[in-house]
Structure formats: structure tokens, C-alpha cells
Amino acid sequence: MEELNKARKKIDEINEEIAHLLDERVALVKEIGNIKKKNQIPIIDKERENKIFEKLSKLKFKSAQFQEIRKIFEKILSVSRIIQDCSYKIAFLGPRGTFSEQAAQRYFSPSCNFVPLKSISDIFRSVRVGESDYGVVPIENSTTGSIGLTLDLILESDIIVCGEIIERISLCLIAPETIEFKDIHQLYSHPQPFSQCRNYLEENLSHAELITTKSTANAAETVSKLKNAAAIGSELAGKIYDLKIMRKGIEDAPNNYTRFFVIGKSQVPETGKDKTSIAFSVKHVPGALVKALKVFAERNINLTKLESRPSKTTPWEYFFFTDFEGHRDNKICNEALEELKKYTNMIRIFGSYPMSE
């Protein structure tokens, strides 16, 4: 036992050394967080984190494997992000419990101050005037297409797109703890989830009265105060309003995803796995659009989105909203954007950002 106690005493000494070093690190993390906030620099910096792991991988360890050390540092970096995130305000499309909030919490740390706002326009205004540090707005759905209002607001403002989130829309049947499935006589939700769960409802809840609400979160809040009623909404809404999850994944189409933009005021540095969003209009001459798109094809730059949207200022004039793989600061991408100017009347670069995993 003396040998064991001796080893444990040494561990206690090392623990104290580690704790003091971590305390020093926390102080520096807070200092860096303040610098980032002052200069509108995003909290998440994948390039920096990759460099940390790259340096650690080159160190020689006597007993530990690199992957063991990496796991410890992954936790340290995770806690560091939480510390830096604490003072950040993140605006999202409310009320509480929406898929927008669920996406925002997955992208940022739960320690952030999440602010529910009533409209997408309010989110843009909040970020623009500095009430919020970042905003999370829906940009497109895999089944219903783009959100026109978001596209218009991005085009009209000087807001920068600094991130994207791909959120699977998994709909849950949620209800108070006391209710049994057979006792559900009323079902609350937004019209869209009702249509997305049509087959499930016909097979399992055809007897229930469908009552529409402004959002799935509103449905959850309403049901939390009722008997013999359930709601269709997110798992997060169930947790917020203290409802049990009766069924998960009741949507008819399992591949239903919504893409969100993270908007802010600062450009994001290159990470090596980025995407850039732009809009442009072409000159009214034959082959103008072909020539514009050719600047990407010639450089083997992959376009992930191309969508036309009418200009609100000139009849029969269109803007082309485009996403492509690569960062605007990358040499090849920058060359493509410069050449694109030759074939366009207008070009707006909304931002480059890490691709969603």
C-alpha cells in the first residue's frame, strides 16, 4: 500500500501543477475572448485548433499515446470555447424551442446568451445595430427550397455570412407526462409539420383534431398547459416545456434538412475546407451567364448552388445566388472572382466560411 500511496501522492502534486497551469490558460482564454469580441472575430477557429493538434502530434511522449493526449486537449478546447462564448449574444428565430434555436445551440456553446426574435428581419437588424453578436437564420430547406426573405435581406445589407449549419428536421410527438397515446384527442403544430407527417398521422392519429399554431414551439407551449393534447415539434421544445417525447422521427421523409446561415460583421479566415456565397447579375448580351460560370469551371471550382431571383428594382433583371467550394482569400478562388467581374453588372460576396460537416 505504501507504493500505491506514494504514486497517488505524486499524482496529487501533478494535479496541482496542472490546475495552476489551467488557471493561467483560462486567464489567457478570457483575454483572447475579449479581443475577439472587440474585433468581431468568430469564436470558432478550426485552423488554429488544427495547428494545436499538429504541434502536439510532433511531441515525444514517454507513456501516453498522441490520441490519448488529443482527447484531453479536445475537452480543454471545448471548455475554452464555452468560456469565450459566455458573453456572446446569439439571435435566432423564436420563440424558444424552434429548430432555429436547436441549430444555434449546436453551432455555438449552450453557455451563450440565446435571444429569440420574432422575425428574420429582426435578426438582421439586431446584428446590424450591434444588439446581437451573431444571428442564425434559415436559408433553405432540402424539400421546400430557399427562404426568399433571407436571400433578399442578405443582398440588401452589409451583413457577412460567417458560418453554416445543416440541421436535420426530426419531428417528435411530444406531450405532458400524464397523457397516454390513446388519450390524444387534439394535436397542435405548425401547418408545415402536419403536412410533413401526413402518413404517420393518418395511420396512428386519424381520430385527433389538428389545431394549427404559429410555430412548433408555440404548439409545445400550448400543450404544456392542456390535458388530452399533444404537439409535433423539436426534441428541444419538449425539454424546454417539460414534455415527454412519445415518438421520435415521425416525419414521412427522413431526409428533411434545413440549412442555416450564421451572420455577423466579420470575415472568417480560411480553414482549408470552406465555402463562399455570392450573388451577381450578368450583362444583357448573348452567352453572358455561360461566360460567368465558365470562370469557375476552368479552375475546377465546384458550384454547390445556383439560383436565380428577380431584382426588385429592374423588371426582368435577375440576381444569381451562388455557393462554391473554396475561400475568397484562396488564390484560385480570388482569381475567379476577379475575372467574374468582367461578365457581371454587379457582384456581392456575402462571405466565406467553414463548410458544415
Description:
There is one protein chain. β1 (89-93), α4 (99-107) and β2 form a beta-alpha-beta unit. The protein is built from 12 helices and 15 strands. The strands form 3 sheets. Strands 1, 2, 3, 4, 5 and 11 form a 6-stranded mixed beta sheet that branches. Strands 8-7-9-6-10 form a 5-stranded mixed beta sheet. It has 4 domains: 2-85, Chorismate mutase (Chorismate Mutase Domain, subunit A, Up-down Bundle); 88-169 and 254-266, D-Maltodextrin-Binding Protein, domain 2, CATH 3.40.190.10; 172-247, 3-Layer(aba) Sandwich (D-Maltodextrin-Binding Protein, domain 2); 270-357, Alpha-Beta Plaits (2-Layer Sandwich). The chain has helices spanning 2-38, 46-57, 66-85, 99-107, 120-128, 148-156, 191-196, 198-204, 216-223, 235-240, 288-297, 331-340; strands at residues 89-93, 113-117, 134-141, 145-146, 160-168, 172-175, 186-189, 209-212, 229-233, 244-247, 257-264, 274-282, 303-310, 318-325, 344-354. By secondary structure, the chain is an alpha/beta fold. The longest helix has 37 residues, at 2-38.
